[in-house]
Design the sequence.
């Protein structure tokens, strides 16, 4: 059985790119680190680091071992924190990734409050609309909006909200065009779409009534803020999650169209890296996000 302390010291040496900087960071003699890593190499019967007077080189097997060793150390730390951190203040780094609209509309206001509530947390938010591999890129929490259930994975999935998609348009547009009374009336209206190639909406009312409607594309954008602006300008009718247009509806800038019908729903799920999901720091941030996004007033 490997000495976990030696494994941890090896990980620190690799992360600090040398024995001397790791020794300074850890407050240990350089000779102690060298001795413990050498002992680890003897236990494994392999060379992990090539030592020269001028270069620090991790061997190929050393790099592979470090990848797994870093996870071992992290899991051991998580296990300790689960026990010690039940009553302790959340502390340490927590990395979050989400889409740009989610960051702007919700997390921009929320996460600073969480950081102020827990001064020992170090929160890092990465907002992007590109695909992110949560595990490979090392994120603790990913906020995902999706229309279909997410595939099974090794990650912890925490559903926090289901948001109906509704039809809205500006009062100016509805005054200029005949107000739709039933789904079939939408065929004669201009539609604002996420893709120009998308030419239909599937509407539902209640649990059994469904209508497939072919629409005429007037404007297309794959960004919600742009679609809201286009709708406010009176360009046509758009299908949006309630959370994306609720402020515009409340202010009167947009009005519901066919209010008894919805065009599907958007689910919001938190994905958490399994090996860190139980850390008090990650739990505190995940709970705050779930509470905020799950409140009816926020949806």
Sequence:
């Amino acid at each position: 059985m490997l000495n976990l302390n030696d494994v941890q010291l090896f990980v620190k040496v690799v992360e600090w790119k040398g024995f001397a900087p790791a020794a300074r960071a850890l407050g240990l003699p350089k000779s102690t680190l060298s001795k413990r890593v050498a002992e680890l190499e003897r236990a494994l019967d392999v060379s992990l680091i090539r030592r020269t007077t001028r270069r620090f080189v991790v061997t190929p097997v050393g790099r592979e071992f470090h990848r797994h060793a870093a996870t071992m150390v992290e899991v051991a730390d998580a296990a300790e924190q689960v026990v010690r951190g039940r009553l302790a203040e959340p502390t340490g780094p927590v990395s979050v990734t989400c889409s740009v609209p989610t960051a702007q509309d919700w997390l921009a206001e929320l996460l600073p409050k969480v950081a102020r509530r827990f001064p020992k947390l170090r929160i890092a938010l990465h907002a992007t609309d590109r695909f992110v591999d949560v595990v490979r890129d090392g994120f603790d929490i990913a906020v995902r909006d999706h229309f279909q259930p997410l595939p099974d994975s090794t990650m912890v999935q925490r559903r926090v909200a289901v948001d109906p998609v509704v039809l809205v348009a500006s009062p100016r547009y509805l005054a200029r065009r005949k107000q739709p009374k039933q789904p079939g009336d939408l065929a004669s209206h201009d539609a604002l779409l996420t893709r120009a190639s998308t030419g239909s909406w599937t509407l539902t009312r209640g649990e059994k009534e469904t209508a497939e409607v072919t629409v005429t594309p007037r404007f297309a954008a794959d960004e919600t803020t742009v679609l809201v602006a286009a709708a406010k300008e009176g360009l046509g009718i758009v299908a949006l999650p309630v959370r994306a247009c609720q402020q515009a509806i409340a202010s009167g800038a947009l009005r519901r169209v066919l209010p008894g019908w919805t065009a599907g729903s958007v689910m919001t799920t938190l994905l958490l890296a399994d090996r860190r999901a139980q850390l008090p720091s990650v739990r505190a941030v995940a709970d705050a996000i779930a509470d905020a996004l799950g409140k009816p007033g926020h949806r």
Q: What stands out?
A: The chain has a mean pLDDT of 87. The CA atoms of residues 258 and 293 lie 26 Å apart.
